[in-house]
Design goal:
Shape: elongated
Low-confidence stretches: 1-54
Number of strands: 47
Mean pLDDT: 87
Helix content: 10-25%
Structural class: mainly beta
Distance between the termini: 38 Å
Length: 655
Amino acid sequence: MKNKQEIGKVIKEKVNTITRSKTKQITALGIIAITAIIIILATVINNTRKLKYNSAPEIARSMTYDQVQEGEEKITGTDYVTFDAFFLRDLNGDGIAEGIRGMCREIGQSDTLYMELNVVTNGYLEDGLITINGTNSYFQTAIPKDNEIAENAIGNNIQEIKLNTINNGTQKLLTGTICSGDYRYTNTKASAIGNDTNNYSKINSITLTGTHVAEDGTRTEIRKEIEFNIDWYGTAKAEIPAYIASTRNLNQEQDIGTAINEEEGTFTVIYDLGMQETNNILNIQKAYIEGEIPELNGYAPANVTVEGKNVTYTYDEEAQKFTAQKEAIVNENGIITSQAYDGTYNSTNRYNKFKLTITYPLEAYQTLGVDAVEIKLPVKGYYESYNNPNEEFKNPYKSNTVEATFIQTIKLLNGTVMNFDIDVGKYVYTPTRRYIVSKEKPLKIYNGISEQETNDTYLVRWYGYTGTDGQAKTMIMKETANGSTQVSDEFRKTDGTSQSMENVTTNVGIYFSNPVNLLGEEGWIKIYDDETDELLETFTNSNWNKYSASNPYKYEIPVKHIRVETSETNASSSLYVYNIKQLDDEYITTNYTKEEFENIQYIKSTLTGYLGASGMTTTHSANYEAPYGMATVETSKTTISTQETEKNMQIIIKA
């Protein structure tokens, strides 16, 4: 790659070649030319450094544009005014930028448009106006009022630049940024494209109008229009998150009263299958999801339907597989009149919810002999989006295919009897509401920052509620249902498969919330090792309030599985049990490659609760994710001049 001095010489020669037809004008306008060279030089050096990151389709599309030729700056009907507009792009990677009539960038990126106006040896230009005709682009610039500019042209979507009277011997170089929308906000970065599927590739133009007045008084009307291509492209990313906005997605709950229909002899399970697209730059053409319906206690589903606005679906009864999709509706002009998604949250996540209804024979539930049912539904899906229609790009653009397992727990959510619930991890609000467990400490080992890590813990909260009829001899909370194989927390991977965490996690601490409400002043809580039945600790009114999140009770030796048993319970009362679990990072980093570790997406935990003889099982999963930093930068002014030193401007950084 050439050094800055060499590139500067090349750019200076390039600008002189494509914008001047007479070499005698160069000396007179040297100072302005140097300014132009500095601006162009900085841009080209930056673009050259980034060249290796540019996609082949972007460069290939740019090579189809017309290149600027010597003499094209002339205006028909006059020899005294010249005008040109162009982009610069290093098309072959030799460090030399070519002047071209077009721009190709990913949505959310930008390029610099250069406009050069010369009034040469005779008279002056009056009533000059430069009009930016952006059919699928915004022209962002900060051109202050000066001797040649009549009014400030400062903003994110400037459409005209008004000129003062410009005398001969004047050269003016104007620059601005071509954008796909208003980049101040994440949800408007594609606003220049809007809902028009044609706007990924269009002809834009710059027009100069005015009157040249010669020294002898001759008036010549001037109009020159320069056309150039603006091409946008993008990608799409599909996700099936644990939460959509603040609503549970992967782990759902249904009141058992809505499932049982004794009159019709049916047991109906309802899922809201949520999927989202997170890049938020391309218009969505189609959302697609599919899955295999599980049997319930050996019974196949009697009926399966999928509902939603503009949703179509199929169901293969023999294979017990369904497909569903929602497609955008486009009119004859290519305008989207009905979107292929249901809504947007956090400005970036567009989501779909497919209402899947599965009807089983009622005996499928009755023969289970339990109060709560957990049904797992593996699904996968993807998005297709409208993209640049030219042959260099994929149109439609198909996102990644994402897989996940939805879990529906059918139990009594409201009423007079018991309820048990569980949450894993820490609840956070940004960028989306969800429960998380951090991958930070294992990643430090994988990345060589440390050799070992300690105290890598996460919280599992158990909740038990007795209901109005809930006076009982005891409440029991543990992981495994009576008579079943021992249950452990699980790693859930991006492909939807699960792996036991039996060798990874142990209980190291515990504390409670308001146990006196459930048990009264004379009550007690006993903690057992659920595998050996060893009594680990007894808590009473004298000490159960001693322990908290900042001061939990610590077991002498970490315990794989615990069981909580209480004394007699009060009706309409509840108890929270907070289990502190520790991850064995040495075991993780020894037995999982970094790639395998990165593919672990969730940590799932299980709670089985009993109130007297009645019991139910429920589960919850938290995102197991790498930490990240997030900051926003705000300024007290929406635009910043490059011509003057800003004063009294506040810069606010929130981290």
